[in-house]
Amino acid sequence: MPINWPPEGHTEPKKYERSERGVFAVMLVLIGIFGVTTYQPIATGTETYVLLWVDFAASIGLSALPAVFGGVAIFAGGLFVLFRRVVTPIHERIHYEVARQLDLNPDYGYEEMWFHKNPRVIALSTGISVGENMAMLIAPFVGIGLLSVGVLLVSNGLVAGVAAIVLWVNSASSAQDLYHYLRLLRMDPETKFANFERDGEIRTEYVVPEQ
Question: Torsions phi, psi of 197, nearest 5?
């Protein structure tokens, strides 16, 4: 048991667990909402990319089939690099910096989710308030979302399409963060949390004030 946990005046700790179905439901809602709102710039950006690639392929003498495979490969590879090497690290870094500013001892790592290892930042601390948890959870969704919307407002064509894809995918990948955020909204604001390592795994517990 971590030092100073549970705090005085609170109930015995309970394990905090997420619902995979709950996270999936939030993801579906986010995919739908942001898929509809970003459809037009994504469609326009894709059309711009296709036209640029067709012109380039023709200029270097590529025949139809290699041009198609090359265009798809570059598009898919570009998206992979964008999200795995740029957006995801920035997303997790925002979690980390917010937790660091709140003195919550953030730590990088991975967790199993839907049969793959998902990068994550967790605050290895005790006595974490609901407000601190919510700030850490929502920051990447809001920060990257606002930046993407800003780029969308001042650009068009391919750049706007990429910004729209970033907005859509980052929003969908924030499903777990928003799931926890929505749960916290319904909890007693005096609830306290603790994240600590036990038997090689990260355990999250919470307590509420005694009545």
Answer: -90, 135
